[in-house]
UniProtKB/TrEMBL annotation:
Domain of life: Bacteria
Spans annotated as Disordered: 72-95
Presence of keyword Phosphoprotein: no
InterPro entries: YgaP-like_TM (IPR021309)
Protein species of origin: Niallia nealsonii
Pfam families: YgaP-like_TM
Record keywords: Membrane, Transmembrane, Transmembrane helix
Transmembrane segments: 7-27, 39-64
Name this polypeptide is given: DUF2892 domain-containing protein
Domain annotation Inner membrane protein YgaP-like transmembrane: ranges: 4-66
UniProt keyword Protein transport, yes or no: no
Amino acid sequence: MNPKPNISLINALIRITCGFTFLAWSTAKLSKKPHNQSYLWIALLAGMKIAEGIVRYCPLVALYDKKEEFPPNKQVHSTQNYNHEIKKKNDHVEASSSKEVAKIMEDFNPEKIFSPEDMKKD
């Protein structure tokens, strides 16, 4: 299994840096108080962040992205009705978008902005 990277390079570098920082801090604390379990947990979590930065894959980000792919919690009786609703919404968005674009193009028409003398090439 080769997971695709789902975090950016900058995010990976930040995870590696913070992971090594917390790992160094927790191991220093763990050497002074070896019976304190919380430092061990912090060291394990820091190691996980280092691994996420090296691999550039975060399972929580993947889980969040997968959650966004699904429609909101709405009971759909059949996929046909759902597809029809989505198509209807998309048609409305496309129609309003094209009307808005046409209006913007009319407003920014060079003939309205510039005078005919400005349009002449010297």
